[in-house]
Write a structure and sequence with these properties.
Length: about 280
């Protein structure tokens, strides 16, 4: 573990393999299956690599606490409610949103590869961290990725990011990602996203009682994958349509270490010690 200073905040760079081991074991101790814990850890690490610390590994203790309180089911089943060639509706069963949204996007990808577009609605889920990491699952397979979430609030009740999208890489370029939040989009777009998520899921998210801890809130997702190849424009898409707001993203596997805020690394070390897990950083 090497220390460094960035933007006046103390960081440490942690070996990715060691971080995956510690975070995965902590989730499994709460009852998560190994494969699903791996999905959660990958999404969190990808968020950290994008500089999105709120949704990175630092959020893991909040999710662990929510499991202890019964607000998140660590062994929740992802139930298929509706499945058709281009669309599907899934029920997240109060499980981790990282798992539900990731699997929903992969289902959308398969539909898009077959028919050009796939849209999956996920209801009764918990928050799943950084939306761009979900959109990137489509981009990594050469597709456009689009993610909406019904409503997320921070601990003070402020609206959080509710949309992200990604464009696949043209030859010689990297995939690009972009995000938007409710304040920036305004009321009409927010209403549209609510319709695409909660409305199509058959629920009304606006009447829900919000819990003090944001990770315990119920959310709905709409995840979409679109195949440019089916439209005959795969080669030129990113080159012509990227905008200044979109940022290039290198594949996460190219980065063997992960930057963590020092307090986050120390807290994870403390949690690992409690379960008698030998640390390798």
């Amino acid at each position: 573990m090497d220390s460094e200073t960035s933007d006046s905040a103390s960081h440490v760079r942690v070996e990715r393999a060691a971080l995956e081991l510690v975070a995965g074991k902590l989730l499994q101790r709460k009852g998560m299956f190994a494969a699903e814990a791996e999905i959660v850890v990958h999404r969190m690490i990808e968020a950290d690599l994008m500089g999105r610390n709120r949704d990175g590994v630092g959020s893991l203790p909040d999710f662990l606490d929510a499991m202890d309180l019964g607000d998140i089911d660590p062994r929740a089943r992802l139930i298929t409610v509706t499945d058709a060639p281009a669309i599907a509706v899934l029920d997240g069963s109060t499980g981790m949103g990282h798992v539900a949204a990731s699997r929903g996007m992969l289902m959308a990808v398969e539909k898009a590869k077959s028919g050009g577009i796939g849209n999956v609605i996920i209801r009764n889920s918990r928050p799943g961290g950084d939306l761009a990491t979900i959109a990137a699952l489509a981009t990594s397979q050469g597709l456009i990725g689009l993610v909406h979430v019904s409503m997320e609030l921070d601990s003070e009740g402020n609206p959080l990011e509710n949309m992200a999208w990604s464009l696949p890489a043209a030859t010689g370029l990297k995939p690009h990602l972009s995000r938007s939040n409710r304040n920036a989009l305004g009321g009409e777009m927010s209403l549209l996203f609510g319709t695409l998520c909660s409305g199509l899921a058959g629920v009304d998210s606006h009447s829900r009682k919000r819990k003090p801890v944001w990770v315990a809130n119920v959310v709905e997702y709409s995840v979409t994958a679109i195949s440019p190849e089916k439209f005959g424009q795969a080669d030129s898409l990113l080159e012509k349509w990227q905008t200044p707001e979109m940022v290039p993203v290198a594949p996460a596997e190219e980065k063997p270490t992960v930057p963590l805020l020092l307090p986050v690394a120390e807290r994870l070390a403390g949690l690992a010690t409690k379960i008698k897990l030998a640390l390798t950083w």
